[in-house]
Amino acid sequence: MRRDRLGKQARYAGYAALWLLIVIVMTAAGNGAGNHRARTSVDRITVDIDSPEGALLTEQIVREWVETEEYSPVGKSLDSIDLAMLEERISSHKAVARAEVSLNCDGSVDIDIRQRRPLMRLMVDGYDLYVSDDGYIFDAPAASTAYVPVVTGDYRPLFTPRYSGYSSDIVRDSIAAIERRIDELEREKIPFYRALQQNARSRKQLSAQRAHKGWFTSDEEYAVRREQVELYKAQRREELAAEAKRLQTDIDGLSRNQEAEGKRQKKLKKIEEDFSKLCNFVDIIRRDDFWSSEIVQIVAHGGGDKALELEIIPRSGRYTILLGRADDIERKLADLDAFYRNALSNVGWDRYRSINVKYKGQIVCR
């Protein structure tokens, strides 16, 4: 028994010594790593940036963002580098979809960037913005350009010329605000509804009022009293009717305001729908080798109260192609392609000044 206890105590003492050794080694390693990080300075920056078709960012552009006196990590010790600050600095540029910054023990700072892919450049009056393939709107980085379709014309989008973000976010927030306003207007009706109910009760009570003849009331006195009651009732009916009319007018005014808010909501949805159609049209031509090279410029008209209509400027001739509304695009492009192959190739590319494919089943040339 005593020998067993001594054996257990020896094992426990061994375990404790082993754990103590592990703690000492880990502490020494941590101190060594900390000392290494404190002694090692950053001597270079590596930039890994994806390069999709139509890319805006280059390694040089990214380096200019971080290699400034204020932000540059070069020459600083590894343990003094604020990775979160660097990532925030890079991510603040709207052309960046995602940025990751990491440190290596050899003294390098690695920057990995996924950039946004421009779908089109919106250059209508007062606007110069890129729209990415996922619908994100942003200013173009300085000293950069992307070969993407350019949209010009008098088209007016929902967002402002300095906006960055998703157009759908504006619509969502605006519609939510409109719905809150409609609910608020409905609550404002409640006191008027209650007053109308009280008005109806008062009219009912008024109708029930009668002149009463007492035991000792003469017929003449009763006739006078009845006439007074009827006169009062007539006057009171006019007052209650006027009050009910005023209350209903107030309710109708609030209802008109609600209707106006509802129209605003529909208008916002229509503007966003038009913008989505414009993006869809650009995406269709971008994915087609022929149309992506043939279409030089897209001219957009409308927006707001007016329906979006499109024209395209081709590379092959001096004519304008009228597409009309941004609906049934695949059919219109198919008709145009057939016209290119079967008509223009025979009569000549400079024969017409405009080609209209707005209407199904016909092409009008001038």
List keywords for this structure.
Ubiquitin-like (UB roll), alpha/beta, 19% strand, 10-stranded mixed β-sheet, 366 residues, 7 helices, flat
| Main sheet summary | 10 strands, mixed
Total helix count?
7
Write down the secondary-structure element order.
Answer: HEHHEEEEEEEHHHEEEHEE
| Mean of residue pLDDT values | 84
> What is the SS-derived class?
alpha/beta
Count of extended strands? 13
Which segments are poorly predicted (pLDDT under 50) over 5 or more consecutive residues?
27-37
User: How do the strands line up in the largest sheet?
Assistant: 8-6-5-4-7-9-10-11-12-13
Rg over alpha carbons: 39 Å
Distance between the termini: 114 Å
The helical percent reads: 40-55%
Strand content: 15-25%
Give a quick rundown of the structure.
The protein has helices spanning 2-39, 59-66, 83-91, 167-208, 219-286, 289-294, 329-347, and strands at 44-49, 96-103, 108-115, 118-122, 129-132, 136-138, 150-153, 165-166, 295-303, 306-314, 320-325, 354-356, 364-365.
